Amino acid sequence: MDSRVIAELILHLGRIASGDGFVSGLTPVQWAGLRYFAQANRFSRTPSAFAAFHGTTRGTASQIIKGLVADGYLKQTRSKTDGRSVRLDLTKKARAFLGDDPIEALVRAADALPLRVRGNFSAVLQRLLGSVALEAGKPLFGTCETCVHFEGDGCCQEGMSAYECGFVKEALTADELEQLCINFESGKPAPTRVGTA
Ligand code: SF4
């Protein structure tokens, strides 16, 4: 297949999957915000990381966040160590809404693919994402297991955490290993998971 056709298909899929109007009272960009803050780790739930992920300016990202905070979907907390930085967390109201996400149709379509196809497709998309992000000078978000800063093997030794981030020098919980991170640096092969090969 022609490479341009592949690029057009990916763009078209993204456009129709994200919806073209209000869904449950939220616009496509507001849904993009909720989706981001639902999957980003605590180091990445900031206005600047969202702007980088969404490929937009700080000003536009701030407007989207302001609306979500005002409508009770995001809660803003000031950092105890640095009063200027804020962390944004999804509220209960937002979590209850996530099932209405317009991209659920795409999630169901992906779910219907055989496991092996899903694994290969995911690897191809990651590769395309890496190339495009590099060329555009954008950060490549990723998760801990394939990050060069990831330390630990899940076993607690005395005085040590089971998992740690070498970049921020903090312990990580098992839940955080699958969350998106702006500080991600690709370098480790993805672990082989039973049933996905
Ligand atoms: S190990 Fe990598 S992906 Fe995980 S929190 Fe640290 S920098 Fe982010």
Describe the fold and architecture.
The protein is globular. Strand 1 and strand 2 form a beta hairpin. Helix content is 43%, strand content 8%. The protein has 2 domains: 3-100, Winged helix-like DNA-binding domain superfamily/Winged helix DNA-binding domain (Arc Repressor Mutant, subunit A); 137-178, no CATH class. The chain has 197 residues and is mainly alpha-helical. Helix 2 packs across helix 4 (58-70) and helix 3 packs across helix 4 (58-70). The strands form 2 sheets. A 3-stranded antiparallel sheet has the order 3-4-5, with no helix packed on it. The model is unreliable at 193-197 (pLDDT under 50). The structure holds iron/sulfur cluster. Iron/sulfur cluster is lined by residues 41, 43, 143-144, 147, 149-150, 165, 167, 181, 183-184. Iron/sulfur cluster binds next to loops.
Given as residue ranges, the uncertain stretches (5+ residues, pLDDT < 50) are 193-197
Q: Would you identify the CATH architecture of the largest domain?
A: Orthogonal Bundle
Beta-strand residue percentage: 5-15%
Compute the number of helices: 7
Proportion of residues in helical segments: 40-55%
CATH superfamily of the largest domain: Winged helix-like DNA-binding domain superfamily/Winged helix DNA-binding domain
Strand order in the sheet with the most strands? 3-4-5
What is the secondary structure topology, with strand pairs?
Elements: H1 3-17, H2 28-39, H3 47-54, H4 58-70, E1 74-78, E2 86-90, H5 92-97, H6 104-111, H7 115-136, E3 150-151, E4 164-165, E5 170-171
Antiparallel strand pairs: 1-2, 3-4, 4-5
This protein binds iron/sulfur cluster (SF4).
